[in-house]
């Protein structure tokens, strides 16, 4: 049932504050302001490195998780797409924690990667939305997302719930490794507790985004830029736009622009820049300005301070609330999803059932 919404995708975008809160409830003790994972049969303190494997949108959760686990737990993290991981010869020494991320829990390549890890003697955890799925049954530690059934083929609410669980896992690993004291943990947990409300605040820009979608709908190509955890968000933005609007889009790490893609820039290629205020802002904006000097038509997604500083000479700005850097990806997912959605609606494509795509990819 789509409720009052025109598409399942829009309904699921709007469910995010509720389902992220619901998911976090299983992983946070609000009174103690602590993260708590379910009981497990192994010791997180013994983890020496983490390998995260997934496909598509779920693989971007892995890339964001790498930033978090390295920052908080100071453990080396490797991330790969499942179809590559399983056919190379991954080195999986003792002390490796293997993590799979999957909405369906049935994606053939991710399931095969999980089995490969288990056969190699690796302890595994799975961030999974369907609790009865094959992966949910086979992982050593099931970390459920509580997004509810996701009907739209393009993943939205499952993605932000996966990020919420990944954040909790990162913090728990950090504590287990003695790299985060109680004070620091409380600060991070407060940021997570604020996420649902901040996602709601981001949803308030829906109409503004719908209003500017027309400027993107006519483009043949679109580029997305971000730095740090916003780099995987740029990849996610490009994937969402491609799959539902059929516009060719690419995401790049901001600093990679000048190593090739800047040659694509002209007035006909909109450039979507994801740049929350913070330590990475100035660098990202200087990459954006290099592109503007070559005629790029920029859409800047930032907060009020960022827009005040760098919003000039853009074709549009999308203002996000101010956010703790940890939850920025959960919040910036919203404008990225809404932009793809409204561009697809403007183009008249089948938003919930894009051509050539299936919800669950059970073939290799
Ligand atoms: C994109 C999308 C896909 C899935 C991928 C993995 O919007 O939905 O890229 O993320 O097919 O699927 P799961 O998470 O079911 O393993």
UniProtKB/TrEMBL annotation:
Subcellular location(s) per record: Cytoplasm
Domain of life: Bacteria
GO biological process terms, semicolon-separated: amino sugar biosynthetic process; carbohydrate metabolic process; fructose 6-phosphate metabolic process; protein N-linked glycosylation; UDP-N-acetylglucosamine metabolic process
Keywords: Aminotransferase, Cytoplasm, Glutamine amidotransferase, Repeat, Transferase
A GO term, aspect molecular function: glutamine-fructose-6-phosphate transaminase (isomerizing) activity
Start and end residues of each SIS domain: 40-179, 212-354
Entry's Gene Ontology cellular component terms: cytosol
Active site: 359
Catalytic activity: D-fructose 6-phosphate + L-glutamine = D-glucosamine 6-phosphate + L-glutamate
EC number: 2.6.1.16
Class of enzymatic activity (EC top level): transferase
Subunit and partners: Homodimer.
Function: Catalyzes the first step in hexosamine metabolism, converting fructose-6P into glucosamine-6P using glutamine as a nitrogen source.
Official protein name in the record: Glutamine--fructose-6-phosphate aminotransferase [isomerizing]
Provenance organism: Sphingomonas guangdongensis
Span of the entire protein shown here: 244 to 607 of 607
